Amino acid sequence: MHVPPRPAGAGPAAVLLGAALTGCEDGAAPPRPAVTPSGSPIASSAPPSLPPTVSAPATPATPVATATAAPAPATRLSMSVTTPGGRLDLVRGGPAREFTVTLRNGNSDAYRHLLLAFQMEALVPEPGDAPGPQASLLLERRDPGTGRWGPAELRVAGDLKPYSLYEGGSPLARDEVRTEHYRLRATTGGPTGSSPLMVRAIDTDAPEGTPEERRRPAASSLPHRTRRAS
Questions:
Q1: Percent of residues, the chain, with pLDDT higher than 90
Q2: Distance of CA 44 to CAs 47, 181, 202, 221, Å?
Q3: Residue 202 — φ and ψ, nearest 5°?
Q4: Count of alpha carbons within 13 Å of 172, Cβ hemisphere only?
Q5: Are the beta carbons of 152 and 182 closer than 8 angstroms?
Q6: What is the pTM of this model?
Q7: Which of 15, 65, 84, 122 has minimal CB crowding within 10 Å?
């Protein structure tokens, strides 16, 4: 019997090629490419890169305005002299009448020696007034520590005593408020009449030649009348 020869090139490689076309040697089908619902294969590619993040330019910080409190206005020493009824109505030989002197210091000056000076013009005797003692009016001050009354100086004159001749006084701090208690009495044989009681606050530490408002920073007065007993 005659065996026909194999075609040229049909060697083992051809056999393997045929096997690849018909399936794998173990009979498993080769993997198929993934397709889209429309039947088109999905192209495999690297994920798209995100665009670079662009930072907003730095904004210079706006300075915050700080509220500055306005300085307190300058205030000065003030003084008030008060009594019930608004005046010292005295009777010769009668009881004393009390009054108060209140000092309210400002924020400008502190005083080391501030003195209260009291002055009254002499009363002119009226017809029928008998000559009385030299001190026809007696002034007293109440000690704030003990509550006792003691004599205080009262100048009876028509002229002004130079401020440089006054000495002493007590301290008064800035913004301090202090109230002093006084009383005035008319003696039995003194004259009658009216004359205001003048009160001056004198800074005894003020240098010579300073203005009057510096040496005498506060002043006030209180109406006064002395009459005969009924």
A1: 54
A2: 9, 108, 106, 110
A3: -115, 125
A4: 32
A5: yes
A6: 0.68
A7: 65
Q: Which two tokens stand for residue 4?
A: 């026909």
| Residue 46, pLDDT above cutoff 80 | no
pLDDT digits (tens, 9 = 90+) for 99-146: 999 999 999 999 999 999 999 998 876 666 665 555 789 999 999 999
Query: How far, in Å, are 7, 164, 214 from residue 209 at the CA level?
Result: 146, 9, 10
- Determine the Cα–Cα distance for residues 127 and 121; give it in Å rounded to an integer: 19
**Window from 126-140, 181-195, 204-218 with minimum mean pLDDT:** 126-140
* Rounded distance between C-alpha atoms, residue 90 and residue 228, angstroms: 9
Specify the DSSP element, H or E, that contains 28: none
**Neighbour-count burial for 120-146, b at 16+ CB within 10 Å, e otherwise:** bbebeeeeebeebeeebbbbbbbeeee
Q: One-letter amino acid identity for 6?
A: R
Percentages of the chain per state (helix, strand, coil), in multiples of 5: 10, 30, 60
